[in-house]
Amino acid sequence: MKEFSYVRAADTAQAQALVAERPDAVYLGGGTNLVDLMKLGVAEPDLVVDVSRLPLDGVEHRADGSVLIGATARNSVLAGDEGIRERFPALAQALLAGASGQLRSQATIGGNLLQRTRCGYFQDVTKPCNKREPGSGCPALEGAHRELAVLGTSDHCVAGHPSDMAVAMVALDAVAHLRSPGGTTRTVPVDQLYVPPGDTPHRETVLERGELITAVELPPPPAGAVMRYRKVRDRWSYAFALVSVAAVVDVEPDGSLAEVRIALGGVGTRPWRARAAEAALRGAEPTDSALRAAAGAEFAAARPLPGNAFKVDLATDLIRAVVRDLADQATRKDR
Amino acid sequence: MSTSTLTQSLGAPVTRLDGHAKVTGAAQYAYEYPVEGVVYVFPAVSTIARGRVTAVDAAAVLSRPGVLAVLDHTNAPRLKPGVDADLMVLQSPEVSYRGQIVAGVVATSLEAARRAAEALPISYEQEPHDVLLRDDDTVYTPETVNGMLPATFEVGDPDTALAAADVLVDARYTTPAEHAMPMEPHATLAVWDEERLTLYDSNQGPFAYGQLIAALFGIDASAVEVVAEYVGGGFGSKVLPRPSAVLAVQAARVVQRPVKIAMTRQQMFSLVTYRTPTIQRVRLGADREGRLTVVVHDSLSQSSRLKEYTENSTADAKLLYAAPNIRTVSRLSRLDVPTPGFFRAPGRTPGTFALESAMDELAYELGIDPVELRLRNEPTVDPGTGLEFSSRNLAACLREGAARFGWQHRDRAPRSRRDGRWLVGTGMASATHPVYIRASTAVARAEADGTFVVRVGATDIGTGARTAMAQVAADALGVPLERLRLEIGRASLGMAALAGGSMGTASWSWAVDKACRALVDKLGAYAGAVPEGGLEARADTAEDLEKQEALSRHAYGAQFVQLRVDTDTGEIRVDRMLGVFTAGRILNPRTARSQLVGAMTMGLSMALLEIGEPDPLFGDVVNHDLAGYHYAANADVPAIEAHWLEERDDRLNPVGGKGIGELGIVGTAAAVTNAFHHATGVRVRDLPLRIESARQALRRAPGENASALVR
How far is B184 from B239, CA to CA, in rounded Å? Predict the structure, then answer.
């Protein structure tokens, strides 16, 4: 590991001033990913500014039904929050589907959103990687890519976004609150926090230099809707998703879908909101063929590789299963 | 004193004597010994899989703070050739696999050593590499396989029997590279004192380890002490010294200070031996009654360019079932990969996956219950050697296992059980492991204060061997455990077997038992009063072993598995596993159960999860960490039951145990995939059985439109 300086920020302004003036500085949240990358030599900051103890860790349930989640709240705290479990169960499920108990107690909400891909080439500095070393090439296209993305990829990068939590947040229309070093604030839907890899895969988010995620806001969940997060992975805990689905569903009395939101994990370069599938399903009956067609619409633009082509099919089946189950649940609930 | 106390401690579920020390951190592992002036070596490893080092620019890092030395092939201490080609560290510029040690940086801190090693400029002349195992014209049949056994075997006329068989199964099975990942990484602390060398090292047999290191460095074996008092797992991968240990010894010689090294998890994927991938073909011929007429088992494995290690995957084709015609062949491919080696039941683990899958296939071809098929082929003598069995209770294991598991309720037809969205199936397989025993020595000593010390050059790699041996000693001496102290884990304690091949506890216990009894006899002359200065008795079992009659000595077992397959997704969940074993006398049921359950869990991992993914582009293992290399987590492990049957075998050794470290993994993977076949109606012959294979299988499955995946 390269030697680095460490500062525990006294407040947000100080933290941001430090990072803004030093291009070689990074924020440290729970460190569950950054510290690994530093050990591997993938991240080599000179200055690490610890923001994990800033007083941004509240989970505030507001009168209008929205929730403001502080960026330094720990994953385990949010997963255990009663209001989240009751009103946003898909988010609690997603959080609990990620990592292990120890890691969830350490990881922060802001850090989780900004975690890096687990692509084997990105994490191995002895091999080329366009994301780590722009222009060096992408061996994953020919090499190992079973775990990597099929949606949003480019000829330069097929790295997948590994988060579970972010997938649920994207389905829930969550909005990130950002603060610039100058103190200006803005909001960006989590869905739009990430940029496609294109030919600049080293650029991953819309965050400006020194900009800090201070909170994530969840709008009130759609009234009457049911939701779920289902993750398929190689083992039953402690593995990244091969495919995951977060869905929010409500049905009309006639059984057609009044509300349907679908987000996918494990298949995209970012937590993937499946808007094409949603559009195809809105107002439709959740029949097997409708669900299959909707998934087909979403994956029309997919660029599967030989080792991960199975994900397209698996995601289709998982969307079908989750939306079908939720529609059944919503129907039962209405009776 | 008398021998009437023999069963007092043996057979009791004594808790581990070292458990408290381990969980409180008091037990010292190799890396933790406090040594004055210790420094650190970190290896620089090759980033090519084949070629040679053309330059190592030591000057670029020597000026860094804390850096003491850079070792490479031009300046490293010379080693004696002919000992172990894998261990010829820094003796030539040749690179034979990616991740091979090509330099080492010694520094006063681990951080400085690692940073410098990673920054060390190394130039190569690269050649094209090949790391993918396949059956091509470079494949050959070696003279011998692991264990110095012949690579081929034939009895009867297999070809004629194949042509004449009423029913034939001919199938190809593959298993991937699997990597042993003990909790404690391979670690070494090397201390030179003039021409004497002390190694604090995590290994599976300090005596043999010391001899090998001594030979490699051209010094007398008596000048090498190896301390391995606590070892955090090995699974076979710590039997032989690894290149990291050699590098530490070299570095300590160069800087004339104690040097230590612990492998990173990533390094363990190239510098540690692993289970070779295999490509196997099994042909079984039988008559309509299900009696085997012929067994032919061919297994291809890989080795490095450095060393010929051939996995012995076909042994059980010569043992498990009676057949008049048998042929086995082990073949080898040499690739630009690290040398594979021993990993929990080497050979037998991949081999029985193939053989026991083929038996299941045969059962379905014949329409005979898989348990019944095995019972019908129970031999009266060892089919491979013609030797009498010292004891063989496979049939009893099969029957007891079937009864406990509820096998009789099974509907034999595949895809006959559904539970909501799940397809449910059950499968079984036989297990066996040979009883290896190696000569060992031990010393038993009575102290004047009424306590006893037993010394044996054993090592407990986490199995509970220390506790079991203490129980053996306590009974032989006729004293309670509290009055006894066991000293193990040092080469200087004398010649002793390895903690490998499931031979450790049986081999050491024999010597311990013998030494303790000799001491009791000696004490008899003093009427029980220990003389001032104590009394000692020494035992060596070499002659006893030579006198042993030739018999087929094996432990046996039967594995049963129930699993379910999600028809929406192809996800597999193992519901329960049940094993029934016979392994002679069980010395300590608590630690024995732990070994069997642990091994069955490992077999579950092998069936569904484990694969070291070779990277054809760069030549290494892509998923070289424990985030990428999956084995079972707690959530994957269902209710596991391990049972054993009473077995008294007087022709093993005086203590009567057969060894149980490996038995539990044998056959497990086949039981899992056989259950998958029963659930889905589709056979998967390539491990691991991951979701993409499961989904492909479901798509191939016949019938039903209830779910779109099963269509």
Answer: 14
Same domain, yes or no, for B427 and B460? no
pLDDT digits over B453-486, tens only?
999 999 999 999 999 999 999 999 999 999 999 9
- Distance from C-alpha of A289 to C-alpha of B652, rounded to nearest angstrom: 66
Residue of B nearest to A244 (CA): B569
The rounded percent of chain B whose pLDDT value lies above 70 is: 97
Q: Residue B527: its pLDDT value, please?
A: 82
User: Token digits for A240?
Assistant: 């990244």
Is the CB of residue A242 less than 8 Å away from at least one CB of chain B?
yes
Residue B214 lies in a domain: yes
Has residue B373 been placed in a domain?
Answer: no
The CATH fold assigned to A226-330 is Enolase-like; domain 1 (3.30.390)
Residues B517, B582 within the same domain: no
Structural domain of B589: 388-434+554-711
Q: In terms of domains, do B707 and B595 share one? A: yes
Chain B contact for A320 (CB, 8 A cutoff) = yes
Active site residue B662: yes
Of B428, B412, B432, B159, whose CA–CA distance to B285 is shortest?
Answer: B159
B569–A41 CB contact, under 8 Å: no
- pLDDT tens column, A262-305: 999 999 999 999 999 999 999 999 999 999 999 999 999 999 99
Indicate yes or no: CB of B115 within 8 angstroms of CB of A2: yes
Percent of chain A with pLDDT over 70: 100
- Give the ipTM of the model, two decimals please: 0.96
Mean per-residue pLDDT for B335-356? 98
**Inside any domain, residue B445:** yes
Q: Provide the residue count of chain A.
A: 335
Q: Model's pTM, two decimal places?
A: 0.97
Q: What is the CATH number of domain A1-51?
A: 3.30.43.10
SS3 label, residue A129: coil
pLDDT of residue A333: 84
**Do residues B262 and B398 share a domain?**
no
Sort out which chain B residues have CB atoms less than 8 A from A115's CB and list them.
Answer: none
The answer to whether residue B5 neighbours chain A at the CB level (below 8 Å) is no
Among B663, B469, B396, which residue's Cα sits nearest to residue B554? B663
B82-96 tens-digit pLDDT: 999 999 999 999 999
- With 0-12 CB in 10 A as exposed, 13-18 as middle and 19+ as buried, what is A66? middle
Of B519, B447, B540, B438, residue with least CA distance to B476: B519
Query: Beta-carbon neighbour count of residue B54 at 10 Å?
Result: 11
Interface A-B, measured as beta-carbon pairs within 8 A, has a size of: 83
Q: Is B635 on the interface with A (CB under 8 A)?
A: yes
Contacts of A232 in chain B (CB under 8 A): 569, 571, 691
Closest Cβ opposite residue A317 in set B628, B633, B708: B708
Report the residue from A2, A237, A310 with minimal CB separation from B695: A310
The residue from B271, B293, B321 where one domain ends is B271
Using the predicted structure, report yes or no on whether residue B708 has a pLDDT greater than 70: no
Same domain flag for B266 and B411: no
- Enumerate the domain spans of chain A: 1-51, 226-330
